[in-house]
């Protein structure tokens, strides 16, 4: 009977390991990079750097391109 109990324990352990592996598949480095890339929607007109929001874009533009005219879309951002 001992072997029967070992079999049940082994199957449970294997099922738990499979579930853990399946859960981790969606969180690979490649998937994370793709998700982060989707968040970068604003692109600097001068240097083509990508930013996640207009406030960051405005700060970037003021610091990196002070001599250039600010784009219209950033003038309204506070």
UniProtKB/TrEMBL annotation:
<dbReference type="GO" id="GO:0005737">
    <property type="term" value="C:cytoplasm"/>
</dbReference>
<keyword id="KW-0479">Metal-binding</keyword>
<dbReference type="Pfam" id="PF04419">
    <property type="entry name" value="SERF-like_N"/>
</dbReference>
<dbReference type="InterPro" id="IPR045230">
    <property type="entry name" value="MBS1/2-like"/>
</dbReference>
<dbReference type="InterPro" id="IPR026939">
    <property type="entry name" value="ZNF706/At2g23090_sf"/>
</dbReference>
<dbReference type="InterPro" id="IPR007513">
    <property type="entry name" value="SERF-like_N"/>
</dbReference>
<keyword id="KW-0963">Cytoplasm</keyword>
<dbReference type="GO" id="GO:0005634">
    <property type="term" value="C:nucleus"/>
</dbReference>
<keyword id="KW-0862">Zinc</keyword>
<feature type="region of interest" description="Disordered">
    <location>
        <begin position="1"/>
        <end position="37"/>
    </location>
</feature>
<feature type="compositionally biased region" description="Basic and acidic residues">
    <location>
        <begin position="55"/>
        <end position="78"/>
    </location>
</feature>
<feature type="region of interest" description="Disordered">
    <location>
        <begin position="53"/>
        <end position="78"/>
    </location>
</feature>
<feature type="domain" description="Small EDRK-rich factor-like N-terminal">
    <location>
        <begin position="1"/>
        <end position="40"/>
    </location>
</feature>
<dbReference type="GO" id="GO:0006417">
    <property type="term" value="P:regulation of translation"/>
</dbReference>
<feature type="compositionally biased region" description="Low complexity">
    <location>
        <begin position="1"/>
        <end position="13"/>
    </location>
</feature>
<keyword id="KW-0539">Nucleus</keyword>
<dbReference type="GO" id="GO:0008270">
    <property type="term" value="F:zinc ion binding"/>
</dbReference>
<keyword id="KW-0678">Repressor</keyword>
<protein>
    <recommendedName>
        <fullName>Zinc finger protein 706</fullName>
    </recommendedName>
</protein>
<keyword id="KW-0863">Zinc-finger</keyword>
<keyword id="KW-0810">Translation regulation</keyword>
